[in-house]
């Protein structure tokens, strides 16, 4: 496995750790990214099933697309026009209604919470007119843009974002399957190579490379919309 050398200042590191902490108020605990339906359908029934499911989501599904969007938002952090285009694409490039709400709700909550560090910059809406927050913005775009404005290394931000997303989904699965905390930690540790490779590949990807083939995960999010009993919002 190849490695990437990343340089990050101490203030940037502290901010990244704070922004991607489970305690940061994005509301991520309320979403399972379709895993709730996958558990009910029997696709995720144990530690191995969860590890395989999440590896596919990260490498071939929403994780990969989020990583690409984050990098492009990071580059466009000081270009409102370019950032607006990335934000619009991110809002459109989702597989289901619940996935759209999942990313927009968390992204908007992130932008409101990060105002403790600075007043967030405006994005351009669909009408290409500058508007102020709060405005719905996809989670990876929010993280990428803020990281870019604060000098947080793009690769470090991407790695941290992907691990935070994986950890949140593992937490949901631990409650749903159910699994023990030790099993959840083993899954997170086993996913490290996938997280790192996805982050590295995203750095050189274009917006034309967006897309994936984690079809069962996409279907799970659609099926969850009509699931009879639900603990999570997606």
Which terms would index this structure?
234 residues, 11 helices, mainly alpha, Urease accessory protein UreF, two-stranded antiparallel ribbon, globular
Overview of this protein structure:
- With 234 residues, the protein is mostly helical.
- It has a single domain, classed as Urease accessory protein UreF, CATH 1.10.4190.
- Helix content is 60%, strand content 2%.
- It has helices at 10-19, 35-41, 47-60, 62-75, 80-92, 97-113, 139-149, 154-176, 181-190, 192-203, 215-224; strands spanning 123-124, 130-131.
- Strands 1-2 form a two-stranded antiparallel ribbon.
- The longest helix is centred in the C-terminal third of the chain and has 23 residues, at 154-176.
- The two termini are 34 Å apart.
- Mean pLDDT is 90; it is low at 124-134.
| CATH superfamily caption | Urease accessory protein UreF
> What helical percentage do the residues reach?
55-70%
Measure the end-to-end span.
34 Å
For this structure, the CATH topology is Urease accessory protein UreF
Order of strands across the main sheet: 1-2
Please specify the SSE layout and strand pairing.
Layout: H1 10-19, H2 35-41, H3 47-60, H4 62-75, H5 80-92, H6 97-113, E1 123-124, E2 130-131, H7 139-149, H8 154-176, H9 181-190, H10 192-203, H11 215-224
Antiparallel strand pairs: 1-2
